[in-house]
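The step that takes the researchers longest sounds almost clerical: writing a folded protein down as plain text. Below is the pair of lines this work produces for a single protein:

——
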Amino acid sequence: MAQTPELTVLGGGLAGCEAAWQAAERGVTVALYEMRPQRPTAAHKTDQLAELVCSNSLGSVDITNAAGILKEEMRRLGSLIVRVADTCTVPAGAALAVDRVEFAARITKEISTHPNITVIREEMPAIPASGPVIVATGPLTSDTLADSLKTLTRAERLYFFDAISPIVDGETIDRSIAFGASRYNKGGADYLNCPMSRAEYDAFYDALIAAEKVPVREFEKTPYFEGCMPIEVQADRGRQTLLFGPMKPVGLVDPRTGARPYAVVQLRPEDLHGQAYNMVGFQTKLKWPEQKRVFRMIPGLERAEFLRLGSLHRNTFINAPLLLRETLQFRQDSRIFFAGQIVGVEGYTESAGMGLLAGMNAARLIRHKPLLIPPPTTTLGTLITYLTTSDPRTFQPMNVNLGLFPPLPTRIVQREIRRQKIVDRALLDLDRWKTQSVLS
């Protein structure tokens, strides 16, 4: 790309890649800045774009689930992230899970070979002083850029903490104990399930509570995103808490006993060949030796080898209700857009969705076209509404969910019928919007 780029995108994660792709597909020349490998992060392991550092799941594919609707909306809008994810799936019941190595490699190739995109492997320490820019640096924004954002947004604090789950070597799982199944037989035998008796659960719980944690020195009280809370923090809420969370046994039957276990640990495949399994819901900040000791108390994992142990990392986000317009533009400087987790959405697909909108709008700004706001009845629209209308005093990151949708014109008591009506309205309104606005 010989000419001066028309758009600068900061961050080569899912949101940054999606934003760069959307703008480039509209004829805009893009400079995409990614600081890795020149400057590594505490969570990334490779130099690939769009590397998934937490779960390998992009959420539910059930079209009556908000996450499923979101992915379908993004498909219809030409999302790079969802298109590539659909080509490298691994079995995960009703979820869209991907082989994370193949996924990152394909995204990297798509971005690196696009004629309108130049990937620049260096850190951008501050927001450029001129020209359209999309800030999509995600939860691991560098300290120098975070300081720049603090000055720009006049914020004292931009981050909370997030935790990632361990990954187990599939060959070290005892298959005579762990059994393949999805809850209520939905999706086939895609998960491995490690069943626990009450005595085994009690012993595990006591060890988990007593295990040594990694100290957090930056704040006396660590704020966590509720949907990615460390397993030991959940356990601190009471002995039964995990039984209604990541270790709930409902919908599963242990084939050895023919009965429902007292508790279950689910393992989700990370690759097509079953070589690696993610411990579902087991985000943790236990010290690494403690993780091995405590998690090997789980039946079926007594001899487990861990391909990755859990860890704690910082997550960065701005106070979107104070700072962003519905177009994802910064209120004080309309040439600056924000996208991804930094705007206050949580989840891979949600982050990419914000990148999609930011990329489309940045391209329209450059081409002097009216900027777009998705209908509030769509999943993309509900996220924009949440980001821009929430109380800024209590604003926290949010996953897409059915509770964000505006009510239907007529109250419907039956849950399944109500959900289907929400889906039908969302996709109909999206298609109308796409025809009337997006394609203009």
The chain has two domains: 7-158+317-438, 164-314. Residues 164-314 form a domain with the Elongation Factor Tu (Ef-tu); domain 3 fold (CATH 2.40.30.260). The chain has a mean pLDDT of 90. Residues 415-438 form the longest helix (24 residues).
